[in-house]
Specification:
The complex is a heterodimer of chains A (512) and B (657).
Chain A: H1 6-15, H2 23-50, H3 58-67, E1 84-86, E2 94-96, H4 103-108, E3 119-126, H5 148-157, H6 174-189, H7 194-205, H8 213-226, H9 231-246, H10 256-268, H11 280-298, H12 303-318, H13 324-336, H14 339-361, H15 369-396, H16 406-417, H17 424-427, H18 446-460, H19 464-475, H20 484-495, H21 505-511
Chain B: H1 2-17, H2 20-45, H3 51-65, H4 69-93, H5 96-106, H6 111-122, H7 127-132, H8 134-141, E1 144-149, H9 150-163, H10 166-175, E2 176-181, H11 192-195, H12 202-209, E3 217-218, H13 222-255, H14 259-282, H15 284-287, E4 290-291, H16 302-313, E5 326-332, E6 338-343, E7 349-354, E8 358-363, H17 372-375, E9 387-390, E10 398-402, E11 408-413, E12 419-424, E13 428-433, E14 438-444, E15 450-455, E16 461-466, E17 470-475, E18 483-486, E19 492-497, E20 503-508, E21 512-517, E22 523-528, E23 534-539, E24 545-550, E25 555-559, E26 564-569, E27 576-581, E28 587-592, E29 596-601, H18 603-610, E30 623-629, E31 637-640, E32 646-651
Helix pairs in contact in B: 2-10, 3-4, 4-5, 4-9, 4-10, 13-14
Classes of the chains: A mainly alpha (512), B alpha+beta (657).
Chain lengths: 512, 657
Amino acid sequence: MSIVPKETIEVIAQSVGIPSLGADASAALAPDVEYRLREIMQEAIKCMRHAKRTVLTVDDVESALTLRNVEPIYGFASGDPLRFKRAVGHKDLFYLDDREVDFKEIIEAPLPKAPLDTAVVAHWLAIEGVQPAIPENPPIDAIVPPTENKRTEHGKDEGPPVDVKLPVKHILSRELQMYFDKIAELTMSRSDTSLFKEALVSLSKDSGLHPLVPYFSYFIADEVTRSLGDLPVLFALMRVVQSLLRNPHIHIEPYLHQLMPSMITCIVAKRLGHRLSDNHWELRDFSANLVASVCRRFGHVYHNLQNRLTKTLVHAFLDPAKSLTQHYGAVQGLSALGPSAIRLLLLPNLVTYMQLLEPELQLEKQKNEMKRKEAWRVYGALLCAAGKCLYDRLKLFPGLLSPSTRPVLRSNKRVATNNPRNLQGAMDGFSTQLANPGMTQASSSSGQMVENITSVAIRRDQGSDHMQRVSAVLRQAWKEDQDAGHLLGSLYEVFGEAIFSFVQPPEISFFV
Amino acid sequence: MEDEEMEKKVQQYLQRKGFRLTELALQEERNRLTTSALSEVALARSDNDPTRYSDGYSRLKTWAYSSLDQYKKELLRIIYPVFIHCFMDLVAEGHMQEARSFFHTFREDHEEMHSRDLQKLEGVLSPSHLEEMELARSIRQNKFKIKLCEYSYELLLQYLQKTQALVMLGIINEHVTFEVSPGQPSLIFDDADVVALIGTSKDLAKQINQKEVHWGLLEDSVEERMEKALSESDKIEAESKEADAEDNKKRNSESGKQGGSLKKAKKDKLIGATGKNIRTETSMVSVAPRVKRELTLPVTPVEVEQSILEDLRNRAQLNSLALPSVSFYTFLNTHNGLNCSSILHDGSLVVGGFSDSSVKVWDMSKIGQPAKTSSSQGDNESSQGERISTSDEGKRPYTLFQGHSGPVYSVAFSPFGDFLLSSSSDSTIRLWSTNMNANLVCYKGHNYPVWDVQFSPVGHYFASASHDRTARIWSMDKIQPLRIMAGHLSDVDCVQWHVNCNYIATGSSDKTVRLWDVQTGECIRMFIGHRSMVLSLAMSPDGRYMASGDEDGTIMIWDLSTGRCVSPLLGHSSCVWTLDFSCEGALLASGSADCTVKLWDVSSSAKALKMEDTKGGSTNRPRLLKALPTKSTPVYSLRFSRRNLLFAAGAISLSSS
């Protein structure tokens, strides 16, 4: 009848010293016991509410009992939640595990620590309605975008708007933290050791590094801005980026926005490294290739990725106020993006730029040797870019060299060969470096190069109408069906014979 | 025989003439006659057959569920009272077993709406319990009032008549009164009437609610003087502006189409408009009518008045677009012992009441500094056994007040922060001085734990609410209560003063909120609508509205003058511990056990109601502006400062995770 069975009443009666309780009495008592129980619980819930809690504790029941003038039951504390155990053999019988305690043990045990005293701390929960992202406030958006399974979880949570579930806190295991610290240390201080190479291999192969990616991307972005003067560190950082990009287990897309600026910085920064001997050209080349690979991989997912990149680069390239090093970086960056980018963005501006570059190249006009060397660097980069583009065109349409252009070229060549070799001195020593390591075709001898370049310089003086024609051809270069012959001709106008090293021997013979 | 013919004729006549109501009344009358005659027979026949209840009930239920959609909702309302009374009849007749099985079979029908009542009723197991339990008693003594549309009523009558469900008919006749309204079925919106079953009959509540309430603000308050000063300066400004505008016009006409000046004029206008806007916002308070003070009120010291004026001048304007900054005070290491907390209006003092009978006050201005400063105050131990230790050698960052002999359930600062009140389960209220760090008075009067205590807005007077079902008004200088407000059917859980000090509001476990006149001690309003125990109350600064929060997380806004609910605010998923209005009354902040502070836009609803549109304000409901989750910290108390900075306090509870 009631949830308290008669038998229980009888058992209780026996326990308080009434050996035989009448059946009627226990039957009458049972419902009343239940009622009293409920009454006590009702009072206990009131006490709980007034103690501003949502969980009922032993204290609440105790105060309810005192409210009803009943002696409280001793021996229970609200310290920790009671652990009930299921009785063996009974489905719904539970009991409290009451261990026997040895007094001696308790007396001899050291005193427990005093509990911490209550304290009040203040923080801003919101400032003008906006919650500041401080540790005292719950994270509004987890810093790490959730992985696949977490994302689905969040989707579910959005159902009832009432139930505000706090985002899962991102926890980094100890091992990963150590790994991260080690890599960071290696990158910053010992990037020349073989250990660092091992680390890079690990970064590019190991699975399970995904939780670290946000930290790495932050680390890289942070360090690049901080150590612009330290070339080895920058190089090491870029190598880390490369390894991360290579790792097939890492889902790097969400962090690209953080990594891209650092990489672009390493391409077009005005100064990279303190010392003159720092080979920042190599870093620029490396980063340019890195950025290009990113574009190739994620360009289809993020449509504006390449747009934004090229905009930055072209801007750096076309600004005469920018230093030559920046121009170099921009050219390398663009050329790394492939022939179509060169055709579209570099070639149309080539003639104008050459006019700008020319005075820097000549010994008599640019006295600063450092500046002149830089200018030659840029020239080399442009040549490589143009050559790459031309090579690509010729490979695509082999029969495109039309005979009609030949006379013009001939005449030009003749002019070119007549040039004096007055720039020989300036070219000594470093023109061999000009060739881009990736471009094996560009293996021309330094003498020939110098000759051609000089010829360009001379031809430049021959008349502006001629140059306009050349630039017009180059401006058309983006058109797919452009005659490769015209292109070659125009490029020849600009670069001289050096461009021929990008053309396959059979065609060159045909052409010449 | 003749009688029947007569009746038929009368009925036909009525039908022909279209007197539908009369016809129905006649029909009903006849039903009653026949059934009462019949029921005697029926009762005699099946007196000891308890299954008739469950049979009758289940048949009524299936009928109601299978009725037309449009009328179903109304008809379903009848089921609950029938269910309860069937159960109680069974109990009263002594069929314990049957009563229990009946209850369990059908309880899920009502679980959603009435789970708390059901939990209580479940324990009713003998006829004597029916007598003892307040809920059962009140249900027995009073009638449910159910609103029905004409057609639903007709449907019901037809059903009862056709099926000869005499038991059901008996119950319905005995315990339910119908309020039949012509036209379409009423909306489920006024469902509240059905839900709250109150001890006194509905009519009494209505009668009570017809009394007059002067909800205006006090005459000659500091705010009012400030407003006056402001409005005067505004007037001057406005005049000068008008002059400016005229100048502009002239200039415009002179210089023809000169774009610049035109633009400037426009700009001026814009500025004027926004300025006006702001002014209307601020003067929302001043719109409220003024009432005379009925209590002798203490005089505010001049320095305090100065500081109030200073605060008013620096007050940040809050509205749905400009949300307040919230400073949160987190209690650490409370070991589940913090029962209540309170914050002084400027946030400089925070007090916590603990279940170990202690009251602790933190001076937040000293918290950042090393605790040396407080030790200089020395030990101010009073001799009467109450111990106040002021930071033993600067070790303790707080002032400890000890004196209670039971968990402290409520603490409250006086308006100027000089005094502190605490109420405890030892049924006493204690007054402490924060300047002397000493216990001044112990007020004994309640017989049971005192759940809540609140200072009046001007100080000196305070109100307390207790488990003994009374609320009491006290003044600081007398140890006996000045007034005892009795009338709630269960514990009085919270109490709040009206801004003009002439009224207090109390929230109770009987799910009602009542408004009492302090002067007469009479209950002058009864607000019915909550579905569970009322835990928190707040009064709007213009004195017109009241907000109340309950155990389920529902907040209701009431219009004091009409006694009606403006609209419920749904959003919290657990107990609403605290509520507070911003100083202009544009925002309501609520703190809950679900670890959020929520900000509600209540200005729009207030305006809509002011216009008294007949739609019931449903178009312009107050909306949730912002929910600010805390880091697993239930919010115990909230307080807007006079400058509209919001302070919140709560104890972090890590065990919940």
